[in-house]
């Protein structure tokens, strides 16, 4: 039987809309009408009445009441049976017991069985408030159930998150033992001990800390917590079977009334990272040792050409200390080193601006993508080798006695002049000089005197030359003079001037004056000249003609026959 309640009093307290609250009444049908009126005076609701606990079961599956009221009038109506039946089907629905003469024993039994209230039938006016109270309890229970569900969901999400973190989440007391209050499952991988061993106090994180690290870590945590700051530590933690593991510990203190009572932290296993760092450090140490022991100077620079590092040899060669040179442009210290090429004419510039001859290489440093990331310069002191090379180069092109160009170099320059005349119709001249009576000087005064004469003659003639002329010692007492851009007439005048200069030269040998005379042959170099050997032959022939005339004169080569001897020049 269903009763639709009227709204005579209007809604009161938790009673909402008239048909929103459902009440299941287990009572005699005749008495149920009076009970329904008593309820609906206070609580607008829909009341469904059944006449037994057995009849209540199928109704609970379809009616879904908010409150159950059951009569307790044994033997027909027994509220304890109704409570048990209701708890099997709808365990969260509150049940109110009604009885004629409530006694303490029955009331206690009803409450133990799950009833939320007991109302005497003599006080039916209490039914409405009792229903409202039950509704309030139902709402409270539902709210608590929802809160518990949210809490369980939150705890489950936290557990899933914590158990899947790549590290150890822990919460410990801030006391002498530092007992673990919470730790996630990752602690088993990090330490080799079970999570339960930490939670029951058998194992503590502080107890696994390396003895050499324990005091430092403890002091740092206390200092950070006293200042209200987070801490960050790196130390060693003992694994059950794998020795010591390096960990990174980050955490913060939890305070109550200004006093730190707990520590929340996160541990990361950084053993592999530390091992990699150590290997990298060892490689860096080996590199630095190699860098310092290299016999050459080494300078590294970044991609902009600014110096990164220098080894001790580079410091010594340049005069710069690495710390002071760092950040300066490489070109401030080294010049003329090509990128990736040998450089034999480079110089190192010291702090005072002096230059040191060096030789070496410069090469780019590239990253893994092939892009330039810097440069390295390797060099050594080239002062002695470069000086020796210059000496060898000088000796290869100059006469040892007079310091003049030697025959090989002279013939190279003569060939170049002949080629120029042939290609550009330029006019040059060649003079062939031969000392007169030089054998007499050697026979009379010795070869040392002859060497002095040759040296003096080379010096005097060299001062008379134009800068573009080339004077050489061809061998013995013979000299060659290449006059570039000088025609035959001009060459004759130059040769005549040389005769006069030689005539004025006097060589002193052991307090005695040694006179010098010379014969000169002149040959023109033009577009018709055959080659350097032919020009040299012609000038030699002209010189021989001058000697046949008695020497101390100038003859110009004429082809096919020479002019009379009177045409030669003699010094005035």
What does this structure look like?
It is built from 18 helices and 24 strands. With 572 residues, the protein is of the alpha+beta class. The strands form five sheets. The chain has a six-stranded mixed sheet with strand order 1-3-2-4-5-6, with helices on both faces. A six-stranded antiparallel sheet has the order 13-12-17-16-15-14. It has a five-stranded antiparallel sheet with strand order 8-7-11-10-9, sandwiched between helices. Helix content is 42%, strand content 27%. It folds into four domains: 142 residues, Rossmann fold (3-Layer(aba) Sandwich), CATH 3.40.50.2300; 110 residues, Beta-Lactamase (2-Layer Sandwich); 89 residues, Beta-Lactamase (2-Layer Sandwich); 170 residues, Alpha-Beta Plaits (2-Layer Sandwich), CATH 3.30.70. About 3% of the residues have low confidence.
Question: Mean pLDDT, nearest integer?
Answer: 84
Catalogue the unreliable spans.
Answer: 4-19
CATH class of the largest domain: Alpha Beta
The CATH homologous superfamily of the largest domain is called: Reverse transcriptase/Diguanylate cyclase domain
Q: Number of DSSP strands? A: 24
What attributes does this structure have?
572 residues, alpha+beta, Rossmann fold, Beta-Lactamase, 6-stranded mixed sheet, 18 helices, 27% strand
């Amino acid at each position: 039987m269903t009763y639709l309640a009227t709204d005579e009093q209007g809604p009161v307290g938790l009673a909402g809309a008239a048909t929103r609250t459902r009440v299941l009444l287990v009572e005699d049908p005749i008495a149920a009408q009076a009970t329904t009126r008593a309820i609906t005076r206070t609580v607008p609701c829909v009341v469904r009445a059944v006449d037994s606990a057995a009849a209540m079961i199928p109704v609970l599956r379809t009616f879904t009441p908010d409150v159950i009221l059951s009569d307790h009038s044994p033997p027909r109506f027994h509220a304890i049976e109704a409570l048990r039946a209701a708890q099997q089907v709808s365990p969260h629905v509150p049940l109110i017991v009604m009885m004629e003469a409530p006694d303490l024993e029955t009331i206690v039994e009803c409450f133990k069985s799950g009833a939320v209230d007991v109302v005497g039938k003599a006080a039916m006016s209490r039914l409405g408030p009792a229903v409202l109270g039950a509704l309030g309890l139902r709402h409270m229970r539902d709210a608590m159930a929802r809160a518990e569900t949210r809490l369980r969901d939150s705890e489950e999400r936290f557990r899933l998150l914590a158990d899947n973190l790549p590290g150890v989440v822990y919460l410990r007391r801030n006391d002498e033992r530092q007992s673990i209050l919470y730790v996630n499952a990752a602690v088993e991988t990090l330490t080799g001990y079970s999570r339960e061993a930490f939670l029951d106090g058998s194992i503590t994180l502080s107890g696994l800390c390396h003895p050499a690290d324990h005091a430092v870590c403890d002091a740092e945590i206390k200092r950070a917590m006293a200042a209200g700051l987070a801490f960050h530590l790196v130390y060693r933690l003992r694994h059950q079977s794998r020795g010591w593991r390096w960990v990174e510990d980050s955490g913060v203190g939890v305070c109550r009334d200004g006093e730190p009572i707990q520590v929340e932290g996160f541990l990361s296993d950084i053993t592999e990272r530390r091992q990699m760092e150590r290997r990298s450090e060892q490689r860096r140490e080996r590199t630095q040792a190699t860098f310092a022991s290299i016999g050459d100077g080494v300078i590294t620079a970044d991609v902009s050409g600014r110096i990164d590092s220098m080894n001790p040899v580079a410091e010594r060669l340049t005069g710069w200390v690495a710390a002071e040179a760092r950040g300066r442009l490489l070109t401030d210290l080294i010049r003329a080193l090509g990128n990736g090429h040998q450089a034999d004419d480079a110089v190192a510039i010291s702090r005072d601006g002096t230059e040191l001859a060096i030789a070496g290489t410069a090469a780019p440093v590239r990253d893994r993508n092939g892009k330039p990331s810097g440069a390295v310069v390797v060099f050594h002191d080239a002062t002695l080798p470069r000086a020796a090379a210059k000496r060898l180069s000088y000796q290869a092109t100059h006469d040892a006695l007079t310091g003049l160009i030697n025959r090989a170099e002279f013939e190279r320059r003569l060939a170049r002049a002949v080629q120029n005349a042939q290609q550009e119709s330029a006019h040059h001249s060649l003079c062939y000089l031969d000392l007169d009576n030089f054998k007499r000087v050697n026979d009379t005064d010795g070869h040392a005197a002859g060497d002095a004469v040759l040296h003096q003659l080379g010096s005097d003639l060299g001062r008379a030359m134009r800068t573009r002329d080339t004077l050489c010692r061809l061998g013995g007492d013979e000299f060659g003079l290449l006059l570039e851009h000088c025609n035959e007439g001009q060459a004759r005048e130059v040769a005549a001037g040389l005769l006069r200069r030689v005539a004025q030269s006097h060589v002193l040998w052991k307090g005695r004056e040694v006179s010098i005379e010379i014969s000169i042959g002149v040959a023109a170099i033009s577009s018709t000249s055959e080659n350097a050997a032919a020009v040299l032959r012609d000038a030699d022939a002209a010189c021989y003609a001058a000697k046949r005339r008695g020497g101390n004169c100038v003859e110009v080569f004429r082809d096919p026959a020479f002019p009379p001897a009177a045409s030669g020049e003699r010094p005035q």
